[in-house]
Amino acid sequence: MNKNIIKTNSKIVLAFILGALVAGVSVSASILLPSEEVLYDNTQSGGSSNNVQGAIEELYRKTESGSDSCDCTGKSSYFISGYTYNQDSSSANYCITGKEPTCVETTCYKNKVKNSCKAGDIIQYKVNNTDMIAFNVMYDNGNTITMQSQQNILEDVVWVSYSDYTEAGGSNFGSNGNNSKGPITALKRLEATTGGWTYVNNQNYTMGQTVFKTNFYTGCSDYNICNENTYTLESRTAKSRMITVQEAVDLGCSSNSNSCPKWMTPTSTYWTMNASNVAPQYAWYVGTYGHVYINHPIALSLGIRAVVVVSK
To answer: Environment class of residue 57 by beta-carbon count within 10 Å: exposed (0-12), middle (13-18) or buried (19+)?
Structure first.
C-alpha cells in the first residue's frame, strides 16, 4: 500500500477509527485473522465496507481521488480531460477548442516531465468542488502547468479606475487614464472572481521584479521591446493573474494580425499586465485580429482571461 496514506486528511482517518472502535470485536492477541475477516460497524465512519480490509482500501481510494474533505491541490483527479492542440485545419487531428470531433485526447498532465504538455493543449480542469473551466497550456515545467482560460473570465473591466488610481496616490489621471500605478482594478476584479478556485495553486509574484519568460519589465514601447518599469506593484498572492506581453510574444504573438496562435485569439479582446511606456493612457491587450496591441485607453473596458498554475 502507498505510504502516503499516512498523510490522509485527519477527519477521514478519525471517522474510520471511530467506526472500528465501536466494533466490539474481541480477538486474542495470539490469534491472527485476515483483515478481510475482521468485521466492524461502519455506522460512524460513513464508509460502505464492514470489514477492516475494505475500510482501509476505501480510505486509500478517497485519498487518491481527492475527496471533498481533502486539501490536496493538484491531485490528478482535478484534471477532467485533455486534448492535443492542432490549429492546422487540413489535419486529421485538427483541434482548437477540444470540442472538435477530430480532437485527440492526451494525458500529458500525468507525465511529470518538462514540456510533456505543449502550448495550446486544451485542459478541462476542476477549479473547485463545483466548477470546471477549459484552459490552454502556456508552458509545462514538469511538476506544474501554467495555463490560460480558454474564454474571458470577465468582460467590460477597465485596466485601472480613477478611484483605484487616486487611492494608490496617483494624480493626473486624465480623460483616458494613467498607467503609472498598474492594472490595479483589473487584478482586483480577477482575484475576487477566482478566489474560490481552491484546486488551483497560489501564485506569488511582484510586478517589476518577477520574470515572466524573458524579463521583469512592466512597460513596453513595442511588443518585443519591454525594457523599463512603467509601474511596480508590491508582492501579490492570488489564484490567478493576467498574461504578460513577454509570455504572449514567447507563444508567437506580435503586433501583426494573425500572429498569435488561434487558441489565444479571442472573440472579444482581453488585457495583458503590461503598460505602454510611450503613452500613459495605454496598456497592451490581445486583440480579435490575433495580435498584441496598445491603442485602447485603459479607462475603457476590455475582457480578462485568467492565468493559473496547477500541479500535476
So the answer is: middle
Both ends of the chain: CA-CA distance in Å?
Answer: 21
Place of cell 518599469: 229
Question: pLDDT averaged over the chain?
Answer: 84
Query: Distance between CA 84 and CA 94 in Å, rounded?
Result: 9
State residue 77's pLDDT score: 84
| Beta-sheet strands, E only, within 203-250 | 203-205, 219-220, 236-238
Question: For residues 293 and 165, what is the distance between their CA atoms, to the nearest angstrom?
Answer: 23
- The pTM of this model reads 0.77
CA 233 to each of CA 17, 245, 296, 303: distance values in angstroms, whole numbers, following the listed order: 49, 17, 22, 21
The C-alpha atoms of residue 60 and residue 110 are separated, in whole angstroms, by 19
The answer to whether 230 touches 276, Cβ cutoff 8 Å, is: yes
